[in-house]
Design brief:
Blueprint (H helix, E strand, L loop, with lengths): L1 H15 L3 H8 L3 H13 L3 H14 L6 H14 L3 H14 L6 H14 L11 H14 L6 H28 L3 H14 L6 H17 L3 H21 L7 H21 L1
Length: 269
Amino acid sequence: MQKLLKYSAILLLVVITACGDYNKVFKSKDAPLKYKRAMELYSKKDYLRSVGLFDQLRDIYKNSDSLETVYYHTAICYFKLKDYQYASMFFKDFTENFTKSFRLIECAYMSLYCDYLNIGSFELDQSDTKEVMAAMQTFTNYYPDSEYTQKINDHLDELRGKLQNKEYAHVIQYFKMGEFKAAVTSAKNTVKLFPDIKEREDLEFITVKSQYIYAMNSIEKKRKERLEEVLTNFEDYKYNNDKNSAHYNEALDYKIKAEKEIKVLKELL
């Protein structure tokens, strides 16, 4: 999506620069004029035309004190255009090139914020989420008292929630597909990874129900051992959930049925 926006922006910029005063400035070799016009457009929130000039000025002002300002405004323009991938890149470059700038912490945060915005909903691939979370944690370690600390903590909570939702969705998917052994394993791992997950009671119940169905569909010689695992899972469920819990009675019913089946199997031996 970001690349599409970038290409669309370039196409629109070509159209815009085809005529008028802006075209003259865009083609001019007068650096101060470009800079002045870029800042005027920026102040008017015309970020598309403004960034077109800032992109030129980065090379022109390569060895100038004005490069810091140009870099900063380039990053802001891309951010305002919602091209978060490019914005993040420029904010990060800013922190690496202007380590003594008063904008250093702001740009470090903004780079992370852009990465955060670039992460899709939990249904999509979340492979970058842990990396972004680790970078955010590093930020709070470096700047524990910054004005952005609370925002970073809020972002971390939301990203952690996305990972939780992703793992919970996996468990439900395994269950619906009839992969009951995988559902049990996935549910237990999810609770271990996220002990504060809001669906914890549901996940712990799934370990009881799925294990029972898995055991009952097993060959006879393996059924007793797998039914005994139902009892273990129920005890874990019971330890963390009281009788008023949403699935307590149903979980207890699977436990009782497992005990009865175990008794029958013992009598057959």
